[in-house]
Amino acid sequence: xxxxxxxxxxxxxxxxxxxxxxxxxxxxxxxxxxxxxxxxxxxxxxxxxxxxxxxxxxxxxxxxxxxxxxxxxxxxxxxxxxxxxxxxxxxxxxxxxxxxxxxxxxxxxxxxxxxxxxxxxxxxxxxxxxxxxxxxxxxxxxxxxxxxxxxxxxxxxxxxxxxxxxxxxxxxxxxxxxxxxxxxxxxxxxxxxxxxxxxxxxxxxxxxxxxxxxxxxxxxxxxxxxxxxxxxxxxxxxxxxxxxxxxxxxxxxxxxxxxxxxxxxxxxxxxxxxxxxxxxxxxxxxxx
Length: 288
Ligand SMILES: [Zn+2]
Ligand SMILES: [Zn+2]
Prior knowledge:
The protein is α/β, with parallel strands linked by helices and 288 residues long.
């Protein structure tokens, strides 16, 4: 049975290959649909975001691929859009006339270093722990509350179709544990965040990147959060956050097995241009 993937980078951002290479691989693996979500431009430059002037070429290239491969696979145009606070997100006029099939809304930056540099929580661990100390005084509750405050603001301001790697703030826990995600205060924050996600009808992606890249056992989001997502009937999809063509279905089967064990019976994906609940097994989705 086939898989699909709607969180994919390419060489317009920090992905390692041209958009077509991911599609050729997807067709080879029997995917019926594929979605691109390069890191959208930001108001400052980073090593991994698309530059503002590249956006038209990205959109045009995917449009051409849609046409070229229309008999073989459905192609969807998305962007992984950072929410930085009120100053930048999909609500910004920069995105006003951009036609997309969907967005992945993600938080990679939380506030600034004292010198004004934006602080990423998704980079090297030295950078993470430096910001944790300088901006948040190593106070885990302050940091985590701020992170989820941004997630919630993003939902209200940007209405993303998909919430990207919901609990990414735990990423650096694997090297130096600083967060116990079973503590009451943390669970309360998640509960509130999930209620807002449910009210706004966003899809939560189950992101496998930490598993295949860093050998984590835990997905984004982790298992107990997925249990709450199931209880609240929030739709989910499995995404690999691919940066290489070989990663397009990396650990999809692993994620599917976990979702099955929790009781999920369908994944919400774009099919024939409509968000559709597709039944799945550990070996793929039931597309027809
Ligand atoms: Zn991301
Ligand atoms: Zn990504």
